[in-house]
Amino acid sequence: MRAINRFAALLSRALLLGWLVFWQPTFSAHGQPAGGAISQPATQGGDNAFRSVEGPAREEVPGGLMLVAAYGLVWLLLFLYVARVGILQKQTQQELDRLEQRLRNVQTPGRIEKETAQPAQSLK
Amino acid sequence: MEPKPLKNTLPALLLLALLTAVALAAALYAIFVMAPVEARMGIVQKIFYFHVPSAYAMYLAFITCAVCSGLYLARRRERWDAISVASAEVGSLFCLMVLGTGPLWARKAWGVYWIWEPRLTSTLLTGLIFFAYLALRSLGSAGEVERRFAAALSVVGTLNIPIIHFAVYRWRGAHPAVITGRGGGIAPQMRPALLMGFLLFSLLAMLLIWLRARAEETRLRLKAVEAEAAGRGLLEDA
Asked: N or C: which end of chain B has fewer CB within 10 A?
């Protein structure tokens, strides 16, 4: 009698466990409300089912904005580079002119000294 | 060494600038008025008319840099070094244009800004090599050894250009091969705009290299004059 009771208890627990694992998710999937974001197919549920998504079919990228950005980038790079080269040329030229002028100022007294030295040499 | 005076090339430079301005106006007209809108990609396809010519100008500038670097290594004339530096800068500028406009177009065409496919990766690598060249040359104490090393680096970087160009045919990545030897994959109505783009960017590359080389020659002349002034004891008074 005890063995029969034990067997019955074990069988009922196995049936309950089996219902929880295999059958209960199926009932809950079918039980979702119809106004949900994800629509369920009429066939069996589960992770291997294809599900449709409401909304736009693909992501929209604004082509005009990309075009403007690309051309704007090209213009910006060009202007920045030309400005940089212009500033470099101007600063270098100013420094060069200043140094060349100083060199000319130093060379000019040297010519005067040579001219005055020649009559002295001829007297000798 | 006695510093040599710079030749007056201003009239020729102004003529080149004028030609470039005319080419710019013609190219913009051809791109936005003459060329039709592409059927599948829409108006974003017009980036193509600047993206491809800027890549072509990048090739021109980097090849010029390598040739002038080789001439400098052989003959040690400063003019070749000046043109080499100018070409490297201008090539890097066009490389930035290519790497900037391409991803903006790719975002629309491919859905992503960047993928590690052969042409894009090799272009980025070449750009990084020339950025390293410029970093080396921009060192304040860059002497003869640095110049020679940078010249060799530019030759190595230019070896990537055939890889960039033929990668799309050899490895068939995601980057399209629109211009091919069999006539190209563009509509006939689009070809004038593309040709004008090539002309514009060729003139632009020449103009920018000339401007930058002129500034570099001025800087080299300034160094020579500073050396003479230092020899006469003038720089201590400054």
From this structure: N
Q: What's the pLDDT at A122? A: 41
Q: How many CB atoms lie within 10 A of CB B173?
A: 16
Closest residue by Cα to residue B60 from B147, B175, B158, B126: B158
Smallest Cβ–Cβ distance between B234 and the set A69, A70, A102 belongs to A102
| Interval B38-84: pLDDT, tens | 888 888 889 999 999 999 999 999 999 999 999 999 998 889 999 99
Confidence of residue A23 (pLDDT cuts 50, 70, 90): low
Cβ proximity of B156 and B201 under 8 Å: no
Among B206, B209, B204, B213, residue whose Cα is nearest residue B20: B204
Q: How far apart are CA A64 and CA A75, in angstroms?
A: 17
| Cα–chain center distance at B30 | 23
Query: Does residue A8 sit at the B interface (CB-CB below 8 Å)?
Result: no
Residues of A with CB below 8 A from B218's CB? 89, 92-93, 96
Q: What is the dihedral of CA B118, B119, B120, B123, to 10 degrees?
A: 120
pLDDT tens, B160-180? 888 888 877 777 666 766 655
Distance of CA A94 to the CA centre of its chain: 42
Locate B168 and state its tokens. 């799309």
Helices (H), A2-49: 2-18, 24-30
Residue in the structure block whose two tokens are 């108006």: B43
Q: Residue B127: which of B85, B90, B165, B96 has the closest Cα?
A: B96
Please check the confidence at residue B32 and state whether its pLDDT lies above 80.
yes
Query: ipTM score here?
Result: 0.88
The DSSP letter of residue B21 is: H
Q: Rounded to whole angstroms, how far apart are CA atoms B64 and B97? A: 18
Q: What is the pLDDT of residue A57?
A: 62
